Amino acid sequence: MIRTTFNPLAVNQCKESLEARDSKGRTPLHRAAMKGEVTAIIELHGLGANLEAGDNRRRTPLHLAAKSGQVAAIVQLLECGANLEARDFNWRSPLHWAAAKGHVIAIDKLLDLGADQDIHDPMGLTPLHYAAAKGHVIAIAKLYERGANLEEPALLNRTPLHYAAVEGQVAAIGKLRALGANLEAQTIMTERLFIMQ
């Protein structure tokens, strides 16, 4: 594998390209954030790169750093002034993305820096709902440890346990049960969870 190194001179020669977009609408700062290239983030920000630029799905560089589990990039972007609670096209925050991908260290760092553990998307889904639906057991435990609500109702009153069950995430169901999730939780449509005791 060939690894390129960051060249500040090349960036200086390309100031006019700071906001150039690829086919996904990503700028050089998006790419640096995804790859965890802290030096590039510092240089691009210093040259005036937009911290809140959204890609085609309105994901900022911070969203992509969280989605990729790039903790050093998350810290640097926030030190530069990125919005911790930025929302993408589906109204997901960087913490939603870190939880959906199971990046526990990124989850912990975002929470340390002030992210809301029970932040909702338009369907009422919290980062814990995403971690449960994707079966990320360690992320579930971390979010719970940091204060996430096991019984937080989303659309139709569905809890993280409902989402784990619907997605067939057996390990996540077991973790949520062990943490005390309510097995009798009912949705607005009066569905009950049928989980073998």
Describe the fold and architecture.
The longest helix is centred in the middle third of the chain and has 10 residues, at 71-80. This protein has two domains: 1-89, Ankyrin repeat-containing domain (Serine Threonine Protein Phosphatase 5, Tetratricopeptide repeat, Alpha Horseshoe); 120-197, Serine Threonine Protein Phosphatase 5, Tetratricopeptide repeat. It has 197 residues and is mostly helical. 46% of the residues lie in helices and 0% in strands. The chain contains eleven helices and no strands. It has helices at residues 8-12, 28-35, 38-46, 61-68, 71-80, 94-101, 104-112, 127-134, 137-145, 160-166, 170-178. The radius of gyration is 19 Å and the shape is elongated. The model is unreliable at 190-197 (pLDDT under 50).
Distance between the termini: 49 Å
Query: Helical residue percent?
Result: 40-55%
Q: Tell me, briefly, the overall form.
A: elongated
Number of domains: 2
How much of the polypeptide forms β-strand, as a percent range?
under 5%
Number of helices: 11
Sheet with the most strands, sense and barrel status: none
Class of secondary structure makeup: mainly alpha
CATH class category of the largest domain: Mainly Alpha
Radius of gyration: 19 Å
Mean pLDDT: 88
Report the CATH superfamily of the largest domain: Ankyrin repeat-containing domain
Number of strands: 0
CATH topology type of the largest domain? Serine Threonine Protein Phosphatase 5, Tetratricopeptide repeat
User: Could you give the order of the helices and strands?
Assistant: HHHHHHHHHHH
- Outline the low-pLDDT stretches: 190-197
Task: Write the CATH architecture name of the largest domain.
Answer: Alpha Horseshoe
